[in-house]
Design brief:
Length: 110
């Protein structure tokens, strides 16, 4: 539960701290109009630009819940999800990171 939150924070801090050639932007979820910060960088293996959300998703689906079960945590922290709920909550054009994507991130960026 807290693991997903920690992973999102670590990924955001990683990009901010190691000085990777990156750009920041935003993504607006057409389902509910919420806007999220994003970070993009070039994959060192493929040269393709990769974009990650730099904020926790806050889209309510069955299987999502608030940190500490407090609605007041939702605005700041987003929602927590079961694996199935996270897959269902992904906005169109986005996906949960694969093991390979996480491995590339950790291998090349710490």
């Amino acid at each position: 539960m807290i693991k997903q939150y920690i992973v999102a924070i670590l990924a955001s801090l990683l990009f901010a701290q190691v000085g990777i050639a990156q750009s920041t932007g935003t993504f607006t979820d057409s389902r509910d109009g919420q806007t999220y910060k994003t970070v993009s960088f070039k994959n060192p293996l493929t040269g393709a630009t990769v974009t990650w959300m730099a904020q926790n998703l806050n889209y309510k689906v069955q299987g999502s819940y608030n940190y500490d079960d407090k609605e007041s945590n939702r605005n700041e922290l987003g929602l927590l999800y079961t694996w199935e709920a996270a897959a269902n909550a992904c906005p169109k054009g986005w996906h949960l990171a694969t093991d390979g994507e996480w491995t590339t991130l950790v291998t090349h960026f710490g």
